Batch of 2 targets.
Target 1
Amino acid sequence: MNKEQLAVLSKFNHRVIKHPQFESAFSKIEEAYQLNDEIGFQLNLICIGMSGTGKSTLKRRLVKKYPESYAKDRKIVPVLVIDTPSLPTVKNMAEGMLFQLGDPAFFKGSAVDKTGRILNYIKSCQVRLIIFDELQHFIDQGSRAAPRQVSDWLKTLIDQSGSSAVLMGLEQSEYILRINEQLRRRFSRRVDLKPFSIACSSSFRDFTKVIKGLYRTADMPLSGKLSQDLFKRWHFATNGIMAYMVNLIISAYQVAQREGYASIHQECLEQAFIESIWSEGEGRLNPFSKSFNFNRLIKPGMPFHKIETKELAI
């Protein structure tokens, strides 16, 4: 792979692909940060979205805009991001927060002691926004008491911290709010990140704009015009999910380069779908094949089987 090809792939790796839904989500979360920073107002949100819709990109953009810095005697952490462990307990949640805040003895002390140190660090590190990601891990995985215990601890910690907070995770994350009424009341404001919908004209219009932007980033001339038929095939191939869209265009670029094409042909997309999304997606099961049957790939064994389909109606 030559330097020019590496440069194109690097652009995809570092580029934040903006669209109205993403910008709205970022704006709402940033408002929670700014209100806390400017007047000490605590604003809490829950951000829900299936995998690949942009939650991780939101986090990275916030941390990049409000980065850590160092004073003479301490670290300043405007935005604290905590990834919930796969089996969350008060102990490992507290230790994870202390570790991120720079406590060298993050593993020492009782739960009460660790909580007190977290609150002291939040104040001294000037934390204005705490993001708890992978919230779906709170769903009961054995001990029925565990989700309740951790959610109670989380509620108390957030209240006492004075910082704004965002709970972020997959759709099933809402379970933690259902089992804890007080937490639900504190996080009544919701931000959704959904796949682009083919059934909604404005959403599909945003989808086509993003695809055009992806082609521009690939820095290759198009093979013909981007037709409505091709946009529809793109949607069947990705279910409107941003991560799949990016993976597909990167793979199509690589196929075009490998085969010596001067532009990205539909044949490139057909092969890229097999290589980057579904290895069994050939013939009538490949959205870019001339024999594609235009049925959603949501049956068992297909790439989008577990994805909720109500937002994706044809």
Target 2
Amino acid sequence: MYQKDSGDKKYFRVLNILNRLNEGPVRVADLSEEFGVSERSIQRDIERINLTGFHLDAPQKGTYTFAGGVSLKNFNLTSEQLSVLVLMREMAGGMGGAIKEAFDKVFERATASAETDSPFYAVGPRSLNPLTRRFYEDIVYAIERRKKLQVRYASVNGEKDRVLCPVKILTSENFFYMMASCDGREADKFAKYRVDRIKRLEILPDEFTPPSAQAIRKIIGPATTIWGVNDGKKTAVTLRAEGAAADFLQSKEILPRQRVSKPGPDGAVTVKAVIHHPMEVVPLVLHWMPEITIAEPAHLREEVKTRIEAYLKK
């Protein structure tokens, strides 16, 4: 685990403490022992939470609880988002003046109304397997210290032990992935491992030589989905979109470095992009068909057709 009180570790401590407070009183001594930090560090976390606007009571020395009427249910943000606000409040307070005043207004507006009364509501999938604090801290520690990881990973082919050299944590569609190379293989060949499929993880004393930042940027590049984080063969694709699909692709970059033509007389557009993996395009076409068609390459159009035929046979 971290010995340094990093921003990441601080974030997860605040997140944990917020959730504990929502359940009932917390003791500084207990939290200090659990997180392996000084009681003063926990006390600072408590002060951050209190100063942000989550008013706390201290029924006895070293014990804290939410003040009467305070509950995370009263706010229209998730506990993860609220914990970020706590740390942002600390930074804004350090800057003082107009920055602090602006943040206080933002915080007040973000937390003032109940979820049903808020003018904003995030619609989308919710993760059933969130990134655990334990794995997150170990992976970040290994990346920063260039340490190898012994991992037991459950793939579709079963569980297997691997020694990995981690370089990045990626997030896509509410899943977290560890980008890493396999020890003993080419150092610049990376795979992506879903963190929720890691069954066991151990930091090894062995160090590895990290790739250059340029090499990592080249692989991640302009990817818009996890499928695009790939150094494999590039494929140029051309799509034709009409109706709502055309409007959608003109207002949002779905494909890496997509280029959208001006609408024709019928409102249709041509979309060009370069992909690394068919799954960067296939879900998009299946979602919007028949308003999106693949003009080229032919093999990608055939793959979509094969999937539709397989579905219709079920």
